[in-house]
Amino acid sequence: MLVPLYDTVNDRLDVGPGTGILALNCGSGLALLLAAARGAAVTGYDADPGRLRLAAERMAVPQRLGTLPRGALVADTAACLRTGAPTSADVRAGGYDVVTALDPATPAQDLRPALSAVAADARPGTAVVLAGWGPPERCSAARVLAVAARLAEPRGEAAPTPGIGGRDDLEDLARGAGLRPDGSGRVSCPFGYQDQASAVRGLLATGLFEAAVAATDQQQVDKEIAEALHPYRRPDGTVRMENVFRYLIARV
Distance between CA atoms of 240 and 181, rounded to whole angstroms? Predict the structure, then answer.
Protein backbone atom coordinates (compact mmCIF):
# COMPACT_ATOMS: atom_id res chain seq x y z
CA MET A 1 0.00 0.00 0.00
CA LEU A 2 2.99 2.30 0.38
CA VAL A 3 4.38 1.45 -3.07
CA PRO A 4 3.35 4.89 -4.45
CA LEU A 5 5.45 6.52 -1.71
CA TYR A 6 8.47 4.32 -2.37
CA ASP A 7 8.28 4.79 -6.13
CA THR A 8 7.96 8.56 -5.80
CA VAL A 9 11.03 8.77 -3.57
CA ASN A 10 13.03 6.55 -5.91
CA ASP A 11 12.03 8.63 -8.91
CA ARG A 12 12.82 11.92 -7.24
CA LEU A 13 16.29 10.78 -6.15
CA ASP A 14 17.07 8.97 -9.42
CA VAL A 15 17.67 5.69 -7.62
CA GLY A 16 19.29 3.22 -10.00
CA PRO A 17 22.49 1.27 -10.71
CA GLY A 18 25.29 2.51 -8.51
CA THR A 19 23.03 4.03 -5.86
CA GLY A 20 23.93 2.90 -2.34
CA ILE A 21 20.93 2.89 0.00
CA LEU A 22 20.84 2.53 3.78
CA ALA A 23 17.33 1.82 5.09
CA LEU A 24 16.51 2.42 8.75
CA ASN A 25 13.71 0.28 10.20
CA CYS A 26 13.39 -1.49 6.87
CA GLY A 27 10.74 -3.88 8.17
CA SER A 28 9.73 -6.62 5.75
CA GLY A 29 11.77 -5.07 2.98
CA LEU A 30 9.36 -3.93 0.27
CA ALA A 31 11.06 -0.55 -0.16
CA LEU A 32 14.44 -2.30 -0.38
CA LEU A 33 13.09 -4.72 -2.97
CA LEU A 34 11.82 -1.91 -5.18
CA ALA A 35 15.12 -0.05 -4.97
CA ALA A 36 17.13 -3.21 -5.65
CA ALA A 37 14.96 -3.87 -8.71
CA ARG A 38 16.26 -0.56 -10.07
CA GLY A 39 19.84 -1.73 -9.61
CA ALA A 40 20.59 -0.06 -6.26
CA ALA A 41 22.84 -1.69 -3.67
CA VAL A 42 20.70 -1.84 -0.53
CA THR A 43 21.42 -2.35 3.16
CA GLY A 44 18.55 -2.61 5.63
CA TYR A 45 18.49 -2.51 9.43
CA ASP A 46 15.61 -3.54 11.64
CA ALA A 47 15.25 -4.62 15.27
CA ASP A 48 12.83 -7.45 14.47
CA PRO A 49 14.52 -10.66 13.16
CA GLY A 50 11.14 -11.98 12.03
CA ARG A 51 10.55 -9.03 9.74
CA LEU A 52 14.09 -9.35 8.41
CA ARG A 53 13.44 -12.99 7.55
CA LEU A 54 10.39 -11.93 5.56
CA ALA A 55 12.50 -9.27 3.84
CA ALA A 56 15.07 -11.92 2.95
CA GLU A 57 12.38 -14.19 1.51
CA ARG A 58 11.00 -11.34 -0.56
CA MET A 59 14.44 -10.68 -1.99
CA ALA A 60 14.91 -14.38 -2.81
CA VAL A 61 17.95 -14.77 -0.59
CA PRO A 62 19.57 -18.12 -1.40
CA GLN A 63 21.12 -18.81 2.01
CA ARG A 64 19.30 -20.55 4.84
CA LEU A 65 18.68 -17.92 7.51
CA GLY A 66 19.70 -18.50 11.09
CA THR A 67 19.38 -16.08 13.98
CA LEU A 68 20.46 -13.10 11.89
CA PRO A 69 23.41 -11.97 14.02
CA ARG A 70 24.44 -8.36 13.69
CA GLY A 71 26.22 -7.79 10.39
CA ALA A 72 25.02 -11.04 8.83
CA LEU A 73 25.02 -10.97 5.06
CA VAL A 74 21.72 -12.45 3.95
CA ALA A 75 21.59 -11.49 0.30
CA ASP A 76 23.93 -11.21 -2.62
CA THR A 77 26.70 -8.62 -2.75
CA ALA A 78 24.21 -5.88 -3.67
CA ALA A 79 21.87 -6.38 -0.72
CA CYS A 80 22.24 -7.19 2.97
CA LEU A 81 20.06 -7.09 6.07
CA ARG A 82 21.30 -6.42 9.58
CA THR A 83 19.71 -6.49 12.99
CA GLY A 84 19.53 -3.42 15.19
CA ALA A 85 20.59 0.03 14.01
CA PRO A 86 23.72 1.25 12.22
CA THR A 87 26.58 2.62 14.27
CA SER A 88 28.68 5.59 13.28
CA ALA A 89 31.32 3.18 12.00
CA ASP A 90 28.71 1.41 9.87
CA VAL A 91 27.62 4.71 8.33
CA ARG A 92 31.19 5.78 7.59
CA ALA A 93 32.10 2.44 6.05
CA GLY A 94 28.97 2.22 3.92
CA GLY A 95 29.54 5.31 1.79
CA TYR A 96 25.79 5.54 1.14
CA ASP A 97 24.18 7.93 -1.34
CA VAL A 98 20.69 7.75 0.18
CA VAL A 99 19.46 7.00 3.70
CA THR A 100 15.76 6.25 4.15
CA ALA A 101 13.39 6.08 7.11
CA LEU A 102 10.12 5.33 5.33
CA ASP A 103 8.11 3.48 7.99
CA PRO A 104 5.41 5.99 9.03
CA ALA A 105 4.63 3.98 12.17
CA THR A 106 8.11 4.47 13.65
CA PRO A 107 8.05 7.03 16.50
CA ALA A 108 10.38 9.99 16.02
CA GLN A 109 12.27 9.22 19.22
CA ASP A 110 13.24 5.82 17.84
CA LEU A 111 14.79 7.40 14.76
CA ARG A 112 16.80 10.19 16.37
CA PRO A 113 19.92 8.20 17.39
CA ALA A 114 20.41 6.65 13.95
CA LEU A 115 19.68 9.92 12.17
CA SER A 116 22.21 11.72 14.37
CA ALA A 117 24.81 9.10 13.44
CA VAL A 118 24.02 9.66 9.79
CA ALA A 119 24.29 13.42 10.16
CA ALA A 120 27.65 13.09 11.89
CA ASP A 121 29.28 10.42 9.75
CA ALA A 122 27.67 10.19 6.30
CA ARG A 123 29.26 11.95 3.37
CA PRO A 124 28.32 15.62 2.89
CA GLY A 125 25.38 15.92 0.53
CA THR A 126 23.97 12.47 1.31
CA ALA A 127 20.19 12.49 0.89
CA VAL A 128 18.13 11.43 3.92
CA VAL A 129 14.44 10.72 3.31
CA LEU A 130 11.87 10.69 6.11
CA ALA A 131 8.21 9.76 5.71
CA GLY A 132 5.09 10.21 7.79
CA TRP A 133 1.35 10.56 7.68
CA GLY A 134 -0.10 13.59 5.98
CA PRO A 135 -2.75 15.88 7.49
CA PRO A 136 -5.23 13.88 9.62
CA GLU A 137 -8.14 15.19 7.58
CA ARG A 138 -6.57 13.59 4.48
CA CYS A 139 -5.88 10.19 6.10
CA SER A 140 -8.85 7.87 6.55
CA ALA A 141 -6.70 5.15 8.11
CA ALA A 142 -5.52 7.52 10.83
CA ARG A 143 -9.12 7.86 12.01
CA VAL A 144 -9.46 4.10 12.25
CA LEU A 145 -6.12 3.76 14.04
CA ALA A 146 -7.36 6.28 16.62
CA VAL A 147 -9.48 3.43 17.97
CA ALA A 148 -6.27 1.94 19.37
CA ALA A 149 -5.56 4.93 21.59
CA ARG A 150 -9.16 5.14 22.83
CA LEU A 151 -9.36 1.48 23.77
CA ALA A 152 -6.01 1.56 25.56
CA GLU A 153 -7.09 4.37 27.88
CA PRO A 154 -8.76 2.20 30.59
CA ARG A 155 -5.40 0.66 31.32
CA GLY A 156 -3.69 4.02 31.40
CA GLU A 157 -1.37 3.06 28.57
CA ALA A 158 -0.45 5.29 25.68
CA ALA A 159 -1.06 3.28 22.53
CA PRO A 160 1.39 3.74 19.68
CA THR A 161 0.38 6.39 17.19
CA PRO A 162 0.73 6.10 13.41
CA GLY A 163 4.05 7.89 13.63
CA ILE A 164 5.09 11.33 12.47
CA GLY A 165 2.01 13.30 11.51
CA GLY A 166 2.33 16.96 12.52
CA ARG A 167 2.79 19.59 9.85
CA ASP A 168 6.42 20.35 10.73
CA ASP A 169 7.40 17.15 12.55
CA LEU A 170 9.56 15.82 9.74
CA GLU A 171 11.48 19.09 9.49
CA ASP A 172 11.85 19.29 13.26
CA LEU A 173 13.17 15.72 13.40
CA ALA A 174 15.66 16.38 10.61
CA ARG A 175 16.97 19.62 12.07
CA GLY A 176 17.18 18.11 15.55
CA ALA A 177 19.43 15.38 14.16
CA GLY A 178 21.69 17.90 12.42
CA LEU A 179 20.28 17.49 8.91
CA ARG A 180 19.28 20.23 6.45
CA PRO A 181 15.76 20.00 4.91
CA ASP A 182 15.94 20.21 1.13
CA GLY A 183 12.48 19.56 -0.29
CA SER A 184 9.31 17.62 0.42
CA GLY A 185 6.22 16.20 -1.21
CA ARG A 186 2.94 14.40 -0.70
CA VAL A 187 1.81 11.08 -2.14
CA SER A 188 -1.61 9.43 -2.26
CA CYS A 189 -1.46 5.92 -0.77
CA PRO A 190 -4.94 4.38 -0.55
CA PHE A 191 -5.34 1.32 1.66
CA GLY A 192 -7.45 -1.32 -0.09
CA TYR A 193 -8.69 -4.68 1.21
CA GLN A 194 -10.80 -7.37 -0.43
CA ASP A 195 -13.24 -7.46 2.49
CA GLN A 196 -13.77 -6.28 6.06
CA ALA A 197 -12.10 -9.32 7.63
CA SER A 198 -8.94 -8.69 5.60
CA ALA A 199 -8.97 -5.05 6.64
CA VAL A 200 -9.22 -5.95 10.33
CA ARG A 201 -6.34 -8.45 10.01
CA GLY A 202 -4.23 -5.93 8.13
CA LEU A 203 -4.72 -3.20 10.71
CA LEU A 204 -4.01 -5.57 13.60
CA ALA A 205 -0.77 -6.58 11.86
CA THR A 206 0.58 -3.04 12.29
CA GLY A 207 1.11 -3.73 16.00
CA LEU A 208 -0.63 -0.47 16.86
CA PHE A 209 -3.51 -2.25 18.61
CA GLU A 210 -1.49 -4.38 21.03
CA ALA A 211 -2.06 -2.05 24.00
CA ALA A 212 -5.76 -1.92 23.15
CA VAL A 213 -5.99 -5.73 23.18
CA ALA A 214 -4.19 -5.83 26.54
CA ALA A 215 -6.58 -3.24 27.99
CA THR A 216 -9.75 -4.90 26.68
CA ASP A 217 -9.74 -8.16 24.70
CA GLN A 218 -9.27 -9.31 21.12
CA GLN A 219 -12.97 -9.66 20.41
CA GLN A 220 -13.70 -6.11 21.56
CA VAL A 221 -10.86 -4.67 19.48
CA ASP A 222 -11.98 -6.60 16.38
CA LYS A 223 -15.52 -5.31 16.85
CA GLU A 224 -14.45 -1.68 17.27
CA ILE A 225 -12.16 -1.79 14.24
CA ALA A 226 -14.95 -3.27 12.13
CA GLU A 227 -17.30 -0.49 13.21
CA ALA A 228 -14.70 2.19 12.45
CA LEU A 229 -14.24 0.70 8.97
CA HIS A 230 -17.94 0.93 8.13
CA PRO A 231 -17.71 4.34 6.34
CA TYR A 232 -15.03 2.93 4.04
CA ARG A 233 -16.86 -0.20 2.90
CA ARG A 234 -17.95 -0.14 -0.71
CA PRO A 235 -21.02 -1.79 -2.27
CA ASP A 236 -18.96 -4.74 -3.52
CA GLY A 237 -17.72 -5.49 0.03
CA THR A 238 -14.20 -4.16 -0.43
CA VAL A 239 -12.72 -1.60 1.94
CA ARG A 240 -10.85 1.45 0.70
CA MET A 241 -9.33 4.20 2.82
CA GLU A 242 -7.87 7.24 1.10
CA ASN A 243 -4.61 8.46 2.67
CA VAL A 244 -1.96 11.04 1.95
CA PHE A 245 1.62 10.49 3.12
CA ARG A 246 4.32 13.10 3.28
CA TYR A 247 8.05 12.74 2.68
CA LEU A 248 10.94 15.06 3.42
CA ILE A 249 14.32 15.04 1.71
CA ALA A 250 17.11 16.34 3.93
CA ARG A 251 20.85 16.58 3.35
CA VAL A 252 23.88 15.86 5.46
Answer: 33
